[in-house]
């Protein structure tokens, strides 16, 4: 599984980094950043990635299938 952030949608609400602090951080302006290389989510953090995506009010967090990079959650 991979994750990404659509910077054109992120409004800096911070829910992603509050819910999954091992995957997401914040830049100097409070917008979400990825903490995992290439957006690759370790298996034990996949639930957190899904939770962050489901709770993003702007749908800026994307969860992608690793093999096909097909969007599965937005």
From TrEMBL:
GO terms for molecular function: 3 iron, 4 sulfur cluster binding; metal ion binding. The keyword Iron-sulfur applies. It comes from the Bacteria. The keyword Aminoacyl-tRNA synthetase does not apply. Its cofactor is [3Fe-4S] cluster. Keywords: 3Fe-4S, Electron transport, Iron, Iron-sulfur, Metal-binding, Transport. Pfam families: Fer4_15. This is Ferredoxin. It comes from Geodermatophilus amargosae.
